Amino acid sequence: MTVQDFIVLYNETFKFIEKNYGRDQVDDLWAVISREWCTHLRDLVAEKGMEGMNAYWGGNSGTLSREKAFYDIELKDGVFTITMDECPSVKEIRERGFTVYKDYCEHCIALYGPVVADYGFEMKSFIEKEAGTDNPTGKCKLVARKAGANV
Question: Which of 36, 79, 85, 115 could form an S-S bond across to 70 if both were Cys, CB 3.0 to 4.6 Å?
């Protein structure tokens, strides 16, 4: 199984769970993944704070480069921002002929938000949807700051 296969499977699993068990069960799945599987991000943020976020997502060895995403990362004045211009997951799902789960993009904040919150940061996501639909465009922004600061 390739990463690309996993992305499609992940998408279809979210749809299956919501259809058969309800959206709250999708949220529960995301909470378990966050708690049990986001350990690399957790370790980096524990050690380096926002620089750890930058190491996790950015640079040549960060997850977004490995996924071949089209994005910008900025760490400036206590604000860490990822601006995603083309999400490789959304693109992969569409290119394989599948419909993107309407809330697919919300899994990012559900997975990563609690991890960074454990270290005093607040993260918000801003997800772009196709006009007049619930379909994500593959463009979004994640913004993190120290908890209590305006995000």
Answer: 85
| Number of Cα atoms under 13 Å in the Cβ half of residue 20 | 6
In this predicted model, what pLDDT tens digit does every residue of 124-143 receive, in sequence order? 999 999 999 888 999 999 99
3-state secondary structure of 77: coil
Q: Quickly state the pLDDT bin for 46 (edges 50, 70, 90).
A: very high
For residue 22, count other CB atoms closer than 10 A to its CB. Answer: 11
Q: Does residue 116 lie within any of the structural domains?
A: yes
Taking the C-alpha atoms of residue 23 and residue 38, their distance in angstroms, rounded to an integer, is 21
Contacts of 43 (CB under 8 A, 6+ apart): 52
One-letter-per-residue 3-state SS of 1-47: CCHHHHHHHHHHHHHHHHHHHCHHHHHHHHHHHHHHHCHHHHHHHHH
Q: Who contacts 44 (Cβ-Cβ below 8 Å, separation ≥6)? A: 52, 53, 55, 56
117 located within any domain = yes
pLDDT recorded at residue 151 = 59
Q: What is the CATH number of the domain that holds 20?
A: 3.30.1380.20
- Give the structural domain span for 78: 3-146
State the pLDDT at residue 3.
84
